[in-house]
Specification:
about 60% helix; globular; alpha/beta; 10 helices; about 230 residues; 6-stranded mixed sheet; 6 strands
């Protein structure tokens, strides 16, 4: 997707297709700024996996709440398991983007909301009904093997993404609000400011495919609240 001096790539964090698209976009577009769906903590963890392998401990519960802590563990476990199935480590496309940014001397902008804030909000807003739905969905996934509608090695098409997001919104409205709506606003705002302050520069944003349309819509509507950081 393109808008003014911004190009957005919607990725899947375990898809080989995303790795290829990130490499092609950076080498052909030659952006001066590469914006990533990361914050400082997640970038450090991604680039220093061996050092922070056991970083999540019980002491984190105070910061992010038990539900946020549990969600982060389950999410990381599920992503790793799926990554092993397709032979791509979670977040590989982001690591590739960072390495290529350094190689081509492009600036890196971290546009996502702080992960601790997001997980804390998750702990605060999750309802009993959503917890129950979560248990039901886990039970179904364990005992009823459902065939996936898309190839994990590729980014799902827009129709499937919309369907998945709609299901999350209906069954987990507060999860949707925290993980999608609130983060979309933060990322859109940060991209908007980047665009305004760097009108003569090409900006390439690499974000999860589920955020792509929502973020671009917000940018076009100029709904802003800035909080980004740029590194070299």
């Amino acid at each position: 997707m393109k808008y003014k001096n911004l190009t957005i790539i919607g990725t899947s964090h375990i898809a080989q297709q995303s790795l290829n698209e990130v490499k092609t976009a950076i080498e052909t577009e030659k952006p001066e700024i590469i914006a990533l769906e990361l914050d400082k903590n997640r970038l450090y963890a991604l680039m220093n996996e061996k050092k922070v392998k056991n970083k999540f401990s019980l002491s984190n519960i105070k910061k992010i709440g038990f539900k946020g802590f549990l969600f982060s563990l389950i999410g990381a476990w599920a992503e790793k398991k799926l990554g092993k199935l397709v032979g791509v480590s979670p977040g590989s496309e982001m690591k590739k983007a960072v390495k290529l940014a350094r190689k081509h001397q492009a600036k890196i902008a971290l546009i996502d909301k702080d992960i601790e804030q997001t997980l804390k909000r998750f702990s605060e807003t999750l309802t009993w009904k959503e917890k129950w739905n979560f248990l039901i969905d886990i039970f179904k996934s364990v005992f009823k093997k459902k065939k996936l509608e898309f190839d994990l090695r590729e980014v799902p098409n827009k129709k499937i993404i919309k369907k998945l997001i709609k299901e999350v919104k209906e069954r987990y409205p507060n999860v949707y609000k925290v993980l999608i709506t609130e983060r979309n606003r933060t990322m859109a705002a940060n991209l908007q400011k980047l665009m305004e302050n760097n009108q003569d520069k090409k900006i390439l944003a690499i974000i999860g495919a589920g955020h792509e349309e929502g973020i671009l819509k917000l940018i076009k509507e100029h709904r802003i609240s800035y909080s980004f950081s740029i590194s070299q």
